[in-house]
Amino acid sequence: MKLSKYTALLIATLALPMLAAAQNAPKKPASRETVSAVPAWPTRAVKLLVGFPGGSTPDMAARTLAEPLSRALGQPVIVENRPGASGNIAADLAAKATDDHTLAVVINGNLTSAKMLYAKLPYDPAKDFTPISLLTTAPLVLVAPMNQPSGSDFFLAARNGGDKWNYGSVGNGSVGHLGMELLKSTAGNLGAVHVPYQGNPQVVTALLGGQIQMALVPPGIALPQIKAGKLKAIGLTSGRSALASEIPSLADAEVRNFNLEVWTALVGPAKLSKAAQTRLAQEVPRIIRDSDTRQKLFNQGWQAVGTSPEGLTSRIRSETAIMGGIITMRGIKIE
């Protein structure tokens, strides 16, 4: 049926207000599927790998983070200790993880000096990780058995002991190892021989048993032994610190221009999803800077930091240059 020109014009005129109303009507909210363009994370338990034994300072930092992080994420956060090779075993497992739910709490050496020390390191610190946050820092404490002298007399005894003296660390390439090599030259060509251990608890046991004569360990490990009268504090590897206010600096024992810290960081594999990166970058610094967390870490001998990913990247870059100088100066290489 054909419409007359008049009828068609009338229909068009009546339809215009309806079309305008439809165009100006409020739009329906996007469906749940549209809003969720960025996938939720995490969807299951998150694993925190630690390359040192239970009771070690990296382990304590990881466990202090795990509980509040679990509450924030709404999923379990499980700490798994995989000790060995100065933390490089756990670091390598984290670098190669593909489940998007495996992270690692690592120490300085895993991200700075390891590449320069190990010709066959199974991961590349510069390429295989997603930096998340610098968690904690602390000076180290030079400790010795109680039968050793204090202050500058200790270093005189150490020089006289030559290579009959031993020192311990948590492994080849660790800050305790490289720091002691720097100290050996700074304090007057000490000859002490390096003995690596799986973790600081084992270093302390060796000190108490007389197998080694000195070690650089974090305050959280050193202070209980010092307060119990089992180990002697020779000095801090930095200026005086609120973490160990009763311990003098090594400068007081006539060791000048020596400054060194140990730290822990949270990293994920290089292919960690953007959803995970974004969530962790929001939650982890907030948790670490929380007053309760700060106090818990302080009681363990850690200074809480909680940086952005960029802050951790900057620390890695600057310390890699420092550690590279020590490694080159002392000609250190690990097979």
UniProtKB/TrEMBL annotation:
Q: Which domain of life is it from?
A: Bacteria
**What keywords does the record list, in alphabetical order?**
Signal
Signal peptide span: 1-20
User: One Pfam match, by short name?
Assistant: TctC
The UniProt similarity line reads: Belongs to the UPF0065 (bug) family.
- What protein name does the entry list? ABC transporter substrate-binding protein
What is the species of this protein?
Polaromonas eurypsychrophila
Which taxonomic lineage is given here?
Bacteria, Pseudomonadati, Pseudomonadota, Betaproteobacteria, Burkholderiales
